[in-house]
Amino acid sequence: MTPFGSKKGMKLFFYPLLAAVIIAVGLDQVFQFFVLPKRTDIDNSYKVEKLLFEENKDEIPVFGSSKGRSSFIPDSLGDNVFNYSMQKCNFDVIFFLLETELAKDKDTPIIIEFNTRSFVHRPEHTIDLATFMPVKDSEAVVKYLAENDRLDNFQLVPGVRYYGSYLRYLQTLNKKESSNKITNRGGIFIDYYPGDKLLTRFTDSRYSMIEKRAELEARVDAGFPLTYMEDQLLESLQLSLDFEENKERIAKFEEMVKAHPNRNILMVFTPHHPSELAGVTNLERLEEIMDHWNEDIPNLYAFDYSRFYLPDSCFKNSSHINLDGARIFNSALKKEIGYLLED
Amino acid sequence: MLFNSLDYLIFLPLVVVAFYLIPNRFRWVLLLAASYYFYMCWKWQYIFLIVISTMVDFYAGIQIAKTPDKKKKRWFLLLSLFVNLGFLFYFKYFNFFTENTAMALSQFNIFTNFEYYDILLPVGISFYTFQTLSYTIDVYQGKSEPETHLGYFALYVAYFPQLVAGPIERSARLIPQLKREPNITSDDIRYAVNKILLGFFKKLVVADTLSQYINLVYSNVDGTTGTQLYWAAFLFAVQLFADFSGYTDIAMGSARLMGVRLMENFNKPIWTENHSKYWSVWHISLTSWIRDYIYIPLAKINKSRGALMLWSIFILVLIGFWHGANWTFIMFGFVNGCVMVIQRVLSVTKLGRLIRTNKYTLGAQKFLNMNILFLEAVYFRSVDIDMAHNVYRKIFTELNFSIVELLSLYKFEFLMSVIVSCLLWPTVLFNKQLRFKYNWLYVTTMLFLIIFLGQDLKNQFVYFQF
């Protein structure tokens, strides 16, 4: 007998295939028509959709990573500020958001959170398909994903397109995720301090990475061979600890800014825990770049709050501030950039 | 091509439909072409390694059987061993040996110009090498007849369902199945479909969800507590089981659709009373290979109690080293071997016998054994020895039962890991034939779980790297 030699065989072979298609498409449609329309403004795909299709001439967008999402409180900065920051988002995504925003007939400033990892080019890590699939009807989105090798045509097929993201969409339906989590126009803020013990664990982790790098570099300097694993580790430590100066991407960004002199771009290096800056051996290069932006590009402003003092109780972990920290930071930032936001 | 890809979901039904549309005498051509295509989707150049291995072993097998001269037979066996193990050594172990030699020499102030060769490990090389070796050894020992049809032999080496991660099949079992006209029943089809779904569930829902939590913890060992690391060790053991047995399930189901019964590779390995039992029900095709071709010949040399213990440690180190060219795998095998020997010694004591007679104490022994296995897997997961020892240090000095502390980091990932592990549990209790009173309910539930909870990480199977 073959699977196709009897009715029962056919049924057993083809029923699961058919059932798979029905369940996949059914779930896709449930999400398409009932779940996705209920997304809240903390959802990444909602943010992209809002940026693409909503016209608000007065809106001041904030782009950035999770650091930006937990640092900029829209209410504290102005009525028209909206925080578009997303987890893992660096210039791989910001270029797209910025291009979209700059194409609009507007003259409001744009705030961009940046840090030592902002110009790293790693689209497979930074461009999350779950963020873009709900807006897959936009030609710009499809083009952008294709340019970054993040899209195969079959991924647009109903039943496949949201695969792997269903729980993530459900997660963001609940805007106020817990009593300790506050949201405000795209921003998410943690309203507690997790304690010295947890913070120390994060800082210890950072310091041990720095120590390991120093140990491996010392061995190389002394002429001792490293094993392949150690060599790989050293390379990854150097990459993750230092500022990655991707000249090509920085130049591309500067060109974009220069091409739109009517839009002020405010680059903000948000407050960092001292441990996060420790071990960045080329931080002065980032400072030089910020100086260059301030001096040579009239509509590009850089604000360095990386060493802005905040007590440990103002941190969620060593790389993100909590609500208390965000309040203090926003108050100081507003004083410094307020005139630019009001223009 | 990955099993957990849309490509395979198209590839497999196409191959199965084509398989039944053509006469049996031509099916080997279809399957061989499909198998080579399957492998070439990954890196086409490496197909030549499989082809060379195939040609050499085919030739060696025939010559070994043909020549009456024992010396000549041995030369042909050595040829096969040299070529297969040579490839394996070059692609998998060359850098390990040279860099460790350089390190050792540097201790005596002898510095060599060690250069790391950027060699990409061919997927599944350890699996198909062992499979072809078993063929020539069996022919040499007169346990099986040489295969005279090059096409079927090539298919035996490259059969796509089990090419890249086993089960490591013996020629006497697989080749006859590839040759004969498959006579599959509706039970076979149901079993195959159910097994494939179970495999996808284990991989996409369980293993890939667990990997997210485990990767986060292991990428931040210094930032996590001993409690979190202990749970990560536990969950990693579950991930490894779900990942590897998931692969095997898909392989077995795919082969069964075409009438081939691949061997079972697992038999409830996590809940075993000691390491000896564990290694007899975990990755059965590898452990039985090692037993037949290495352990038994060694035991023939010296079968005193002390020697057998030494051989046990040796073969577990070998199994560890088979997994990868890293000291972590060697330590993994060594610790496993030592624990196995200690357990054997204890099992013959009065206390050991007493424990086995009571179901509660036996349960406690199984629980203890399970925990030891989880802890040993830390070596398996760690990038290097230092990392593994750091994990152990934290587990043994910081372990507590604080749920608050456990959930202080990666809460969502941890809770999802616990949920999917709970979902995995009932599947361990399924009957071996995967027969269900309401089969449609099983199929529909599995499909729903795979589609709704499945991860789109495009993670390859853990054992593909071996």
Can you walk me through this structure?
The complex is a heterodimer of chains A (343) and B (466). With 343 residues, chain A is of the alpha/beta class. Chain A has 2 domains: 39-192 and 242-342, Rossmann fold (3-Layer(aba) Sandwich); 198-237. Chain A is built from 15 helices and 9 strands. Chain A has a 5-stranded parallel beta sheet with strand order 2-1-3-6-7. With 466 residues, chain B is an all-alpha fold. Chain B folds into 2 domains: 6-181, no CATH class; 187-465, no CATH class. Chain B has 19 helices and no strands. The longest helix of chain B is centred in the N-terminal third of the chain and has 37 residues, at 70-106. The two termini of chain B are 16 Å apart. Classes of the chains: A alpha/beta (343), B mainly alpha (466). The interface between A and B is large, with 43 and 50 residues.
For the largest beta-sheet of chain A, the strand count, sense and barrel status come to: 5 strands, parallel
Number of helices of chain A: 15
Terminal-residue CA separation of chain B? 16 Å
Q: What oligomeric state do these chains adopt? A: heterodimer
The rough form of chain B would be described as globular
**How can the largest sheet of chain B be summarized?**
none
The domain count of chain A comes to 2
User: How much helix, percentage-wise, in residues of chain B?
Assistant: over 70%
Strand coverage percent of chain A: 5-15%
Distance between the termini of chain A: 79 Å
**Any idea of the CATH class of the largest domain in chain A?**
Alpha Beta
Any idea what the radius of gyration of chain A is? 23 Å
Can you tell me the residue ranges of chain B where pLDDT is under 50 for at least 5 consecutive residues?
Answer: none
